[in-house]
Each structure stands twice: as structure tokens, then as C-alpha cells.
């Protein structure tokens, strides 16, 4: 009924992406990042990211992991990580060890058919 999305051609689906009585999203991407996998970070390995949401992106230049930080009013910061890999992200999860795990698509003939599992650790 309502959407900020667009057709694959780029055409607008609706000129009114809101409607009375319907809740608006806290975060969205136009154009779409091809959302795939999401986790809310509660671990100790990255204390500065605690409370952030991590979303995988499959689409073109938006491929990577997108972090959304929150304050009491809602989203207050956004950043893209791992975009320099040029890899489509299939899933992102927090492990029981507090690290973030990311699964990528195979996007070249040289990669394994099932992609790659990455473990994100703090630098240093």
C-alpha cells in the first residue's frame, strides 16, 4: 500500500510513501540496498557498537554491511563497512563470542561456490 521503493527501471511506485494510520520505517534506503540478514548487536567485542543494528546489502554499490546506531530518539548515525570488498552480503549475525560474522556471495569465478564466512574483530 505504501513504499519508498522503486521499480527496477527506477520508476516511482507511489508518489505518497506514507498513509495515515501506518507506521513509517525508522530507516530505509533509496535505492534499495537489497537487504539480506540483520542483527542487533549486544556483544562486548565492540562496545562502541552495542545497540546498533547491522544489515547486509546485496545490491550493486550498496553491497556491504550497513550499521545503524541509535539514541533515545531513533537512528542517529549510519555507516557502511566492508563495501571495499565489493562482495554481496548474504547474512550478518552476532556470534556467542560477541564477534560479528558475515557471509558473502561468491561474486567471481575464483571464489568458492558458497562464498566466504568472515569474522569481524576489533582492530589492534
Give a structural overview:
The model has no long low-confidence stretch (mean pLDDT 86). It is built from no helices and seven strands. The radius of gyration is 16 Å and the shape is globular. With 124 residues, the chain is mainly beta.
What order do the helices and strands come in, and which of them pair?
Layout lengths: L34 E6 L12 E5 L6 E8 L2 E8 L7 E6 L5 E5 L11 E5 L4
Antiparallel strand pairs: 1-2, 2-3, 3-4, 5-6, 6-7
Q: What is the terminal separation in angstroms?
A: 48 Å
Parts with pLDDT < 50 across at least 5 consecutive residues:
none
Biggest sheet: strand arrangement:
1-2-3-4
Largest pleated sheet:
4 strands, antiparallel
Kindly state the number of beta strands.
7
Spell the H/E element sequence. Answer: EEEEEEE
Number of helices: 0
Helix content: under 10%
Strand % is: 25-35%
How does the overall form come out from the CA principal axes? Answer: globular
Number of domains: 2
In short:
The protein is built from no helices and seven strands.
Amino acid at each position: 500500500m505504501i513504499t519508498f521503493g522503486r521499480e527496477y527501471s527506477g520508476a516511482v511506485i507511489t508518489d505518497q510513501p506514507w498513509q495515515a494510520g501506518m507506521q513509517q520505517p525508522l530507516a530505509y534506503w533509496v535505492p534499495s540496498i537489497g537487504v539480506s540478514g540483520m542483527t542487533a548487536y549486544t556483544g562486548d567485542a565492540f562496545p562502541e557498537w552495542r545497540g546498533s543494528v547491522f544489515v547486509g546489502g546485496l545490491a550493486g554499490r550498496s553491497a556491504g554491511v550497513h550499521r545503524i546506531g541509535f539514541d533515545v530518539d531513533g537512528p542517529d548515525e549510519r555507516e557502511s563497512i566492508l563495501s571495499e570488498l565489493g562482495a554481496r552480503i548474504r547474512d550478518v549475525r552476532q556470534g556467542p563470542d560477541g564477534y560479528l560474522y558475515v557471509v558473502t556471495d561468491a561474486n567471481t569465478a575464483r571464489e568458492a561456490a558458497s562464498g566466504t564466512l568472515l569474522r569481524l574483530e576489533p582492530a589492534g
